[in-house]
From TrEMBL:
<feature type="domain" description="ABC3 transporter permease C-terminal">
    <location>
        <begin position="309"/>
        <end position="430"/>
    </location>
</feature>
<feature type="transmembrane region" description="Helical">
    <location>
        <begin position="350"/>
        <end position="377"/>
    </location>
</feature>
<feature type="domain" description="MacB-like periplasmic core">
    <location>
        <begin position="66"/>
        <end position="277"/>
    </location>
</feature>
<feature type="transmembrane region" description="Helical">
    <location>
        <begin position="305"/>
        <end position="330"/>
    </location>
</feature>
<keyword id="KW-1133">Transmembrane helix</keyword>
<keyword id="KW-0472">Membrane</keyword>
<dbReference type="InterPro" id="IPR003838">
    <property type="entry name" value="ABC3_permease_C"/>
</dbReference>
<keyword id="KW-0812">Transmembrane</keyword>
<feature type="transmembrane region" description="Helical">
    <location>
        <begin position="29"/>
        <end position="46"/>
    </location>
</feature>
<dbReference type="InterPro" id="IPR025857">
    <property type="entry name" value="MacB_PCD"/>
</dbReference>
<protein>
    <submittedName>
        <fullName>ABC transporter permease</fullName>
    </submittedName>
</protein>
<feature type="transmembrane region" description="Helical">
    <location>
        <begin position="410"/>
        <end position="435"/>
    </location>
</feature>
<dbReference type="Pfam" id="PF12704">
    <property type="entry name" value="MacB_PCD"/>
</dbReference>
<feature type="transmembrane region" description="Helical">
    <location>
        <begin position="67"/>
        <end position="87"/>
    </location>
</feature>
<dbReference type="InterPro" id="IPR050250">
    <property type="entry name" value="Macrolide_Exporter_MacB"/>
</dbReference>
<keyword id="KW-1003">Cell membrane</keyword>
<dbReference type="Pfam" id="PF02687">
    <property type="entry name" value="FtsX"/>
</dbReference>
């Protein structure tokens, strides 16, 4: 019978934790309000408040044991939020790279720009599709772009290590389809010349990219003439004239992709259907928001899995720390709890009071851990490792309010589990036995 009781308790615990994981902060506030209402209106709630007040008032006498819970949970939350901030920052950087009124066109079966190819005829037909915005001269606002990789020396490396940087050949319309790109130092490249502008992220990652520096791309000398900022993934790239990049890498007169300005966000439907229904084209079109969201999806999932796995491993240790601490705390208060039950206090108020004490310590630990993660890692500069022909991506870690809430939820969940079993034991222990143990 005892085994079935314990099994039921464990199953209930898993159900409650599953619900808690998906609970938004509004739901948590509602639960807190209902708990407060119960504690001030109902008799059993008032008993809970009395028992909890006594336990919380003695926390100052148990600073050492209480600190075990707070520090353990703060460590879990701090590490968890910091790791998840990598995924959040990476995803934000790529999502910021797109907009709803621009579209990217690639070869139909291509997963990314590097594996795509468009001919000159393809580019002409794409520019004539309905929904494409036009400038004052009536020309389609379309940037035919070539993406290649260049190995550059990593900044700060003492062993002359090199990594892959992404070089993008663009047309003059690139600044019209990406108005957030601004030259912050030097000037823009001139069409027809081997000149480059470098993103701020690439400048931080690689050596030899300051204005006036020369470098080799495709065995040809190029000059860095400017630095640009965009606040997105483009900052990790080097830009030059598409015709000159094609010539340096012997790419002919085609491109990897075409980025177009749409008349309005709703124009993507007519634009995409026109290209798909064109028998001479085998291309696919999507908004740049959708494109970059897909590009970030896999890496974001990997980073989240790593963060949650590490956090879960640390959480197990924190739970055991909380269990040991609360079992010890309950044992020292066995006589007090037994006396309360002897004079009419029921088991439920005792259980909830002990759990409130643990939850309060867990909340303090969660706030400390989340706060430290925000102060240390929010905005922290990081970069991905280059893979294959894809260059390194520079991004800033982002500790968002949602991540802080996730950290608080983990903290409260650890406190809930760590306090539940000691609380149940305190409430279910026979009064006579509790008095003898005390």
């Amino acid at each position: 019978m005892k085994f079935l009781k314990n099994l039921g308790l464990v199953l209930l615990l898993f159900i409650l934790l599953a619900v808690w994981v998906v609970l938004p902060w509004q739901g948590a506030l509602i639960l807190a309000a209902l708990l407060a209402l119960w504690m001030f209106v109902f008799r059993s709630g008032m008993q809970t408040r009395s028992v909890a007040a006594v336990g919380i008032s003695t926390l100052t006498q148990r600073l050492g044991s209480s600190a075990v819970i707070v520090v353990g949970i703060a460590g879990v939350v701090g590490v968890l939020v910091s790791l998840l901030a990598m995924a959040e920052g990476y995803g934000q950087t790529l999502r910021n790279s797109g907009s709803l009124d621009t579209a990217i066109v690639m070869r139909g079966a291509s997963a990314n720009e590097v594996s795509s190819s468009l001919t000159r005829d393809d580019l002409v037909q794409i520019s004539q599709a309905p929904g494409v915005a036009r400038n004052a001269k009536g020309e389609a606002i379309l940037s035919a772009e070539t993406v290649v990789a260049a190995n550059l020396p990593v900044k700060g490396s003492k062993t002359d290590d090199q990594a892959s940087a992404q070089v993008r050949g663009v047309s003059e319309a690139a600044f019209a389809v990406r108005p957030n790109v601004k030259i912050v130092q030097g000037k823009s490249f001139q069409p027809g010349l081997r000149e480059l502008i470098v993103g701020k992220g690439a400048l931080r990652q690689f050596d030899g990219l300051q204005v006036g520096a020369t470098m080799k791309l495709g065995n040809q000398p190029w000059t860095v003439v400017g630095i640009f900022a965009s606040g997105d993934a483009m900052e990790s790239e080097l830009w030059g004239d598409a015709t000159m990049v094609n010539d340096a890498y012997r790419r002919g007169n085609g491109a990897n992709s075409a980025t177009v300005k749409l008349e309005n966000p709703a124009a993507i439907k007519a634009f995409g259907e026109s290209l798909e229904n064109n028998p001479q084209l085998k291309v696919k079109a999507m908004t740049t928001v959708e494109f970059f969201a897909k590009q970030s999806e896999r890496m974001t999932q990997i980073l989240r899995i790593i963060g949650i796995t590490v956090g879960a491993i640390m959480a197990v240790g924190a739970v055991f720390g909380a269990l040991n601490t609360m079992f010890a705390a309950v044992a020292t208060r066995a006589r007090e709890i037994a006396t309360l039950r002897a004079i009419g206090f029921r088991g439920l108020p005792v259980v909830i009071a002990v759990m409130l004490e643990t939850t309060l310590l867990a909340l303090v630990g969660g706030v400390i851990g989340g706060g430290l993660a925000y102060l240390v890692f929010n905005g922290f500069e990081a970069s991905t490792m280059a893979a294959g022909s894809v260059g390194k991506l520079s991004f800033n870690l982002a500790v968002s309010p949602q991540l802080l809430w996730e950290g608080i939820k983990w903290a409260l969940a650890i406190g809930f589990v760590g306090g539940l079993f000691p609380a149940v034991r305190a409430a279910s222990l026979p009064v006579t036995t509790a008095l003898r143990e005390a």
